[in-house]
Structures are given as C-alpha cells and as structure tokens.
C-alpha cells in the first residue's frame, strides 16, 4: 500500500477550519482529534464540527477519539461523516463489538494505543480492525517531541500484521515531521499523522507532498516492505 499523509487539524486555525481543510486537499485523509478533557487533559471538538467539516471538504475524515466511553460515542462520528474512526484500547469496554459496529455503519475501524500500552495483548483483535494507531507522544496536545522509544513497538506491530497476513494499516501520530518520518516508515508505519509539520509550514500542501515523498523513499528501503 502507498504511504498516506493525514494532516491533523489540531494544529490548524480553528477559526478557519474549512479553509484549512481546503489547504491540504492533496492529503489522503484529514485527521480530526476529538478530546473530552477526561481521557486526556484537553478539550477540542465534537460531532457538530465533524458534521460541518464533512460538508466542507472532499478529503475523508480520520477521527481519533481520545475520549472516555467510545463504545457509546464512536458510532455517532460515523453518522457525522467520518470515513475512519479510531478508539483507544485503554478506553473501550468491548473493543471487538465496537470495531464491528463502526464497520457495519460503513467506516474503517481503528484502535489506538498510548505509549505505555503494549500491542501484544491485542494480537487476537487485529483481524477485527482496519488500522492500528501507535501514539508516538502522550495524547492530549499537539506540538510534542517524537518519542524514539516507540520505534520498537512500531516494528513489533508490523511483525504481528505480517504474522497474520493482515491487510491492516499502521498509523503513527505525534511528533511526525521531516526529521522523524523516515524512521517511522522504516520501522513499519504506512499512515502518518502530521500536525505542526504541515500547518506550521508556509505551504501546507507542499509540506504534505514532501512528507509523502520522504516516507515513500524510506519505505522502499525498509525490510518489512521488501518482505511483504
């Protein structure tokens, strides 16, 4: 699968979200961080904003729910127009049932893991998912520095995907930039969330293109991609 770049609107100008979405229409997805000030210590946006964004852009929405009780709320984001919905393993009460409900409503189902949560306990759940998100910072705020100690976890996740021969995307989120994206790609990631690296650039669309090129080059050299 070709690498994908998902700009995060957490780093965009919230007063101009429709314009900020249009500025990156060459991206693969638009990453929408939903925070409830309970699961993480920050409050961002919810269903009404997702509904408005879905009407304002042709780019599909990739909603990352950093919220408590995603079993209750996640299906509403599919109904609001999200093409992919990510819930946190640490917050879901019945992750298999939730993933199946998200898929049944027509969206891709994804599960996220905080830096301190290992992937191995969730190996049996992987066939129920379309994507796994490995957080490379602690969730809650944009602009944080990339945690290099997550690279082995990305590699282990890629190994599990290969072990079960799954068509499963592997996303990374947190501190992804021109300085870190190649390491993520070499470790096994193929979907990259980038916030300040895109919206902090003078030309966000060009930043997306440059990041995609860097990730694609690194992937072409990666052992996991050659073995796939």
TrEMBL record:
Binding site for a divalent metal cation: 31, 33, 64, 173
Record-level Gene Ontology MF annotations: D-ribulose-phosphate 3-epimerase activity
Pathway: Carbohydrate degradation
Enzyme Commission code: 5.1.3.1
Function: Catalyzes the reversible epimerization of D-ribulose 5-phosphate to D-xylulose 5-phosphate.
Keyword entries, A-Z: Carbohydrate metabolism, Isomerase, Metal-binding
Pfam family, one: Ribul_P_3_epim
Details of cofactor binding: Binds 1 divalent metal cation per subunit.
Name this protein carries in UniProt: Ribulose-phosphate 3-epimerase
Organism: Streptomyces beihaiensis
PROSITE patterns (UniProt xref): RIBUL_P_3_EPIMER_1 (PS01085), RIBUL_P_3_EPIMER_2 (PS01086)
Obligatory cofactor(s): Fe(2+); a divalent metal cation; Zn(2+); Co(2+)
Residues reported in the UniProt entry to bind substrate: 8, 64, 140-143, 173-175, 195-196
Family to which the UniProt record says this protein belongs: Belongs to the ribulose-phosphate 3-epimerase family.
Catalytic activities: D-ribulose 5-phosphate = D-xylulose 5-phosphate
Active-site residues, Swiss-Prot/TrEMBL: 33, 173
Keyword Ribonucleoprotein: no
